[in-house]
Amino acid sequence: MAIKAEKQADKTEDVNLQPFMCLMVVLVPILLLQAEFAKISIIDINLPQGRGSQTQKTVKKRKQEEENKLLLTAIITDSVLTLGAKGGFLPSLFYQEYHKYITKDDGTELTVKYDPSDPEAPKHPKTGRPLEIYERYDIFLYACDETYQNLKKTLYTQYGEMLTDLDGLPVDQVQPGDSVYALSTPRRLIIVSNPSEYELRPMSVYDQLRNRLTKVKERFKDADDAEDIIIAAENQVLYDKIVQIMDAAREAEFPNISIAKLRA
Amino acid sequence: MAKERGRGKKLSKKAGLQITSMMDMFTILVVFLLKQFAAEGALLTNADNLVLPNSVSKKRPKEVNLQIAVTNDMVLVDNVPTVPTEDIKNIPLDNPNPVDPKLEEALKGHYASEEEMVRLGALNKVEGKIVIQVDKNIEFDVLYKVMNTCGKVGYNKMNFAVMEREG
């Protein structure tokens, strides 16, 4: 009798989980199918306004308005990246292109130097198949000297941030006790304790651009257009590079991006 | 008898599934997926044959807008192939106001339908927002001409679609 009662109590404790399980088994695949893993986001763009034809009067008025304006412009061509403003230009950044490919069949990663005079696609390291343009994952632009021979190298932290000194110039060696800045938003002061933590890598022109933009931002906080930047590009510049420049601009807190075209 | 019962009990224990931990896991998974999905559904869909550039932008699309996609061989307006990209490339470079007539016509159609919606009271005003998806291997020249055409029709608030960088 006592045993029977115990058994009954056992039975009432047990919830029938089967319908719930069925629901889960259906819900999980549905949601997994609908979930987006590659996230698409958007970038806001402002068109340059009123830069077309204008009458004499408005031009005059414009000049007064532009007195306190910076008119910051990043200019990109197929070999040079330059930053200019109303007062003048910063030294041009000459660059060499390196393309990173991830092959679609076995996921091999390879980075090759791009030579504009030799448009042949690189070969797959194992099968020798020419790689397609869709397999190009990233385009790296590394700063070099005017002769396009020697790459400039600079130190990076383990998080991939470029190191600069107190004046914002790139650093290629550090001693314990040195104080340097890491290029983040805002800049982060680091007192070097172990120089081997930092890696000497080719300097990306996007990082150097971001560094210069950060400095410009600090110096010209009170300009009327302290949040605006114009990106001017040559006709044959790839869209990918323009997006990377927009990223650098946005990270240096220039969120109002306009696009312009360089006249050939 | 007692021995047999004992054995039977042991067997049934072995066959039973440890369902509690599995339920926990499923519940967490479902809640996580629901949350990810419910916040904002996929407002932007990736056009086929199009590789978007990677960017650090975290801004998510908030509403559904007209989409224009520029792939290596076609320009699509709301997923309808409209003009071959080659045609846009062939607009002379020295044209100060490059506009592609076919693309302009297609965009004008969409703009007119938006105006119609405003007239009927379905929209407050014509916002002129457009999302531009461009393949990352497209040259700036094509992008400029497409943007110029959009701007001429009245789509002035442009957004570029990009792929969010991992990590």
Protein topology:
The complex is a heterodimer of chains A (264) and B (167).
Chain A: H1 2-13, H2 18-34, E1 40-45, H3 56-65, E2 73-76, E3 80-85, E4 88-89, E5 93-102, E6 109-113, E7 136-144, E8 153-156, E9 163-164, E10 179-182, E11 188-191, E12 199-202, H4 205-219, E13 228-233, H5 239-251, E14 256-261
Helix pairs in contact in A: 4-5
Chain B: H1 2-15, H2 19-39, E1 54-55, E2 66-70, E3 74-77, E4 80-84, H3 85-89, H4 101-120, E5 129-134, H5 140-153, E6 157-164
Helix pairs in contact in B: 4-5
Question: What brief labels describe this structure?
Answer:
heterodimer, A: 264 residues, eight-stranded mixed beta sheet, 5 helices, 25% helix, globular, B: 167 residues, alpha/beta, Nucleotidyltransferase, domain 5, 44% helix, disordered N terminus
Short description:
Helix content of chain A is 25%, strand content 27%.
What does this structure look like?
The complex is a heterodimer of chains A (264) and B (167). In chain A, 25% of the residues lie in helices and 27% in strands. Chain A contains 5 helices and 14 strands. In chain A, the strands form 3 sheets. In chain A, strands 2, 3, 4, 5, 6, 7, 13 and 14 form an 8-stranded mixed beta sheet that branches. A 3-stranded antiparallel beta sheet of chain A has the order 9-10-11, with no helix packed on it. Chain A has a two-stranded antiparallel ribbon with strand order 8-12. In chain A, β5 (93-102) and β6 form a beta hairpin. In chain A, α4 (205-219) packs parallel to α5 (239-251). Chain B is of the alpha/beta class. Helices cover 44% and strands 18% of the residues of chain B. A 6-stranded mixed beta sheet of chain B has the order 1-6-5-2-3-4. In chain B, α4 packs parallel to α5 (140-153). Chain B is elongated. The N and C termini of chain B lie far apart (63 Å). Chain A binds chain B through residues 17, 20-21, 24, 27-28, 31-32, 34-36, 38-45, 47, 133-134, 136, 138, 233-240, 242-244, 246-247, 250-251, 259, 261, 264, and chain B through 19, 23, 26-27, 29-30, 33-34, 36-37, 42, 44, 46, 51-61, 72, 93-94, 131, 134-141, 143-144, 147, 151, 156, 158-164. β1 of chain A pairs antiparallel with β6 of chain B, so a sheet runs across the interface.
